[in-house]
Structure formats: structure tokens, C-alpha cells
What does this fold into?
Amino acid sequence: MQKTVRKKANNGFFANLWKHRAHVVMALPAFLVLLFIMYVPMIGLTLAFKKYDYSAGLFGSPWVNFENFKFLIASKGEFFLMTKNTLMYYVIFTLVGTILNVVIAIGIDQLVFKRMAKTMQTLMIIPVFISYAAVQFIVFAFLDRNTGMINNVFGTNYRFYAKAGLQYWPLILTVVKVWKDTGYGSVLYMSVLSGIDTSLYEAADIDGANKFQQIRHITIPSLIPMVTVMLLLSVGNLMHSDTGLFYQVTRNIGQLYDATEVIDSYVLNSILNSGNFGYTAAASLFQSVVGLLLMLFANWMVHRIEPENALF
Amino acid sequence: MQKTAVQQPPKKLSTHEHKKIGPGQIILLILIMIFTIFCFAPVLLVFISAFTEETWINSNGFTFFPGTHWSMNGMNSVLRYGSQLLQSYIVTIGITVVGTFFGLLVMSMYAYSISRPGFRFARFLSVFVLIPMLFNGGQLSGYIVFTSWYGLKDSLLLLILPLCVTTMNVIILRTYIANSIPGELMEAATIDGAGDYRTFFQITLPLLKPSLAAVGFMMATAYWNDWQNAQLYITTNAKKPLQLLLINIQKSIEFLLNNNNVPASVRAAMGGTIPQYSSTMATVVVVIAPIMIVYPFFQKYFVKGLTVGSVKG
It folds into this structure.
């Protein structure tokens, strides 16, 4: 036993590995799950360069080089549309979401009615726990032509779920997203606010700073690191959308695709309706590669500006 | 090792305000109250509609104030799904419990391992868990690999495994171990002769509880609400979780709306299960109520347990 240990000690890394063998064993289950669930499927992206043949499978399908990409770009309409929608909704959601998260967090933190603030926060978080499969029924209760609350209250006759309602969907989806995620999103910022040293505020008070000045010079700067991390994390998901929002809430209605189709919902539709897997894989690869580049770029930017806020 | 999020023992909501209540406070209160109503009213509508008379909804639409037109018919008709509803409940509860506990165990072991000082392989493991967040195969590749290579079609494993290890959760647990559990405790345990496993299970794991509670609750919600994997992979009725049941209801509504020429005999045959507005909402209630009941008990862990840090090793 001792002999083996000494032998291993000669090549540092393996000796270290042996010394920490228990940690290797403990990391193993999650490692295997990641390997089989996250890593192996990456091979599936080679399909982007193949013509998928159900009977031949992934490896047996013939290579077609860049045919799938050529087709995607040639079919201008749909590919550009879904890319545009994906980007557009990312920008809107991130902008509106971040601002609201911060505003709500600061608002609740500043409130002197603590008991009430707590209760309101509890109620605000609830929507995040409702699945989109259920949310779509709630949205329907507001938007339906006949029984929908909006049409009934305002005495109007909007047809939101048809081509005529197309223009309203960016707004509808933004409202649903804000409704669902803001309460929970603000919790993360609240955790930062609760960590601010109260003596900072006291000192500012003595110096005669009013509430707004205190928020501007103490509260907001302390939130910047968290905002950076959250933005950075979101950039990596730029090409990914909240699939449920675009697939369930829109009821996957074809007439609304101009305003609601994103890459993720296109991919999901393609799988469920056995679409052309080659094109779909090409779109997926595009999505993954662009996501990766954006993430690396964002991290690099943060590294240059404020190294300690960078994610890796 | 830099940490991006400020980690402090959670105080009661900060105490830096004066006791005087000015007009600013009142305005702030009203604004936040309006936002709270905006968030909660739609949830309330679900519960109200579930107990509103069907004919009232048909003629007046969904409303917060159905007057005296309350009814239990919606709830009663949900019970007509009977055995399927019960079966779906069992499936959903099963995957939620198994997935959450399994995921928490393997992720906290992983997070513990990669935060051990002097463990050189940890750097590789940190990168290994980070990469899937930066680059992944997407839904289609997963679908093809899981179904044709692993041969997992219509398997509950596909409802459990894809959600059980996520980069974010490993980072959260790792941050908590690194920042909130003193390393000296683990060292002391080792000096006292505790093995590596014992140190983890008897020292680290109990101290990790706040983080486990927060992450675990978020995982449980993700499992409970997962409709996508169910829709992609599950075909047998006996394995359908609650969310898939909801989706099927919507599909059958659409089928009825889009097919005016459904023969009377078919309609009659479907008679018992034709979904109505109130019964649909009642189903939604049945699906979302359990989380809403459990959630307040976990809320206190959210702030202290969910702090995200950098993944730099």
C-alpha cells in the first residue's frame, strides 16, 4: 500500500488525484449525468451537415456539407423571421425585466411597512411557479374573443388569436413575461440589498443626502455586480427563448408566427411534427454557436472593464 | 477567489429607514400594491373561474365578480378524469420527489468536490460543468440521441435526468459551500479522523441546508412544471404527468372548436369529458395549487440560499 502511494507521488497530478479519490467518486454521478445528457447529444449537431435518414440513423445518414445551411438562408422568410424575433424578444425582455427587477427590489427595500412588503413580495413571486401549460389558460381568459375579459370589459371585439391580432403579440408576450418573472427576479437583487452596510446610509444621512441621492450613490452601485452577472448569464441564452411562452401562450397558432415564432419553438415544432431534421439541426447549430460566441464576448468585455465581475 | 455577489448573513429587511412616514412612503406603497395586484389578480381569476357557473362564463365572459353565480360543477367534472388525474398526480409527484432528491445529492457532492482546496482535478471539473451552459446540442440532438441511441422512448427517466443536474444549481451550491461554510470545519473534521465521505455527509451536508432548500424548491418547481419533455417523449397514458394532461385538454378543446362537423355520436361519446371553461380552470387549480401551498414554507430560504457567484476556481 505504502509503496503504491510513494510510486504515485512521483507524478504529481495522479498522486493528487489518488489523494482526492473520494472527491473523484463523489463528483462521478453528476459527471456521468452531464456526460450522457449534455455532452453526448452535442454529437447530434453533426446532423446539421447531413441529410437525416430515419432508417440509417445519425451516423448512417449521408453528408451533404453545407446544403442545410444554404437551404436555411435561401428560405429567407422563416429563418430570418425567427432569428429576428428571438433577438427582438431577448432585448425587450432583458431590458424591461432588469429594470423592473431592480426597481421593485429597491422599492420593497425602501418601504417602511415591512410586514406588508413581505406579504406583497410573497404574492408577487407566485406566477413564477405556474407552468406555461397552465399560464396559457389564464392568458386565454383575458384575450379570448367571446369570453375574454379584455373584450368584455372594454366592449371591444379584438381577435387576438388570429391574424388580425398579430400586432398586439409583442406587447402581450412582454406583459406575460413581466407578470411571470419579475417578482422572483427581484428576490436576487433583494438579497444584495439586504447585505448593504446600514452605516453607509447613516453616514449619507448625516451628510445631508436625501433618499434619491442615497439610492443613486449607495444602492444602485451595490447592485451593479449582480446586474452584471445576471446579464452575462442571460447573454449566453440570447439565442434561446422561453419556449413555453412562445409555444404554449401563443397556442402555437400558425397565423401568429410572424410575431411569435422563435428558433426554439421552430425546433420544437419540427420535432413534434417530424419536420426536416437536417434544417432543424442547422438552425440549432447556428443557435448554439452564436450563443457561445456571444457569451465569450460578453465575459471578455466584463473582464476588461471590471475583472472581478467576470463569470470565468 | 473573487465573489461577485455580496454574501452576508440575512438580516431582517434592512433597517435604515426613519420611523416617520412621509407622502413618499405612501406613494411607494400604492405603486408596489398596484404591481402586486397585477401579479396576483390573474391567479385569483383562475380560482374564481373554477367555481363560477359555466353558463355565466359563456354569456358574460371570465370575471372577478360572478355575483351569486358560484358552482361546484367545474370541480366535479375534473373528478371525472378520475383515475387518469390520480395517475398523473402520482407520476408528477414521483418524478418531482425522485428528481429533486437525486439531483440535490449528486450536485452537492459535485459542488463539494470542486470546492476542495488542493484538489487539482477540480479545475477540469469546474470547466466541465460550465461548458453545457455555454454550448449545448439543443432539443433536437437530445431528442435523437435519447430516443434512438439510448432507446429511451416513453421512459420516465427522460422526465428525470435532463433536469437533475444544471450548471446554475451547481454554481449556487458551490458558492454557498465556498462562502458560507468555514473551511476550518472540514479541516478539523479531517484532523479528528473523519474520512472524506463522512466529512461531507456529517459536516458539509447539514450546513448546506439553506442552500439545498432553496435550490431544491426551484428544482421541484421545474419538475412539477415540465411540460416539454413530457410532450416530446411520453405517449402512454399511465406515464403522463399533470402538465401533459393540461395540454391534452387544450388540444381537445381545439379539436372541438375546429370541427363543427364532429358527428353527434362522437360528441355524445365524448360527452363526459368535453372540457368547459370552468372545468378547465378547475384543472388548472388542481395542477398549480400544491406548489402554492408548499411555497410559503420555502420562501425564507430564497434570499440566503440562492446567491450566485463566479465560477472561477
User: Anything to note?
Assistant: Chain A has 16 helices and no strands.
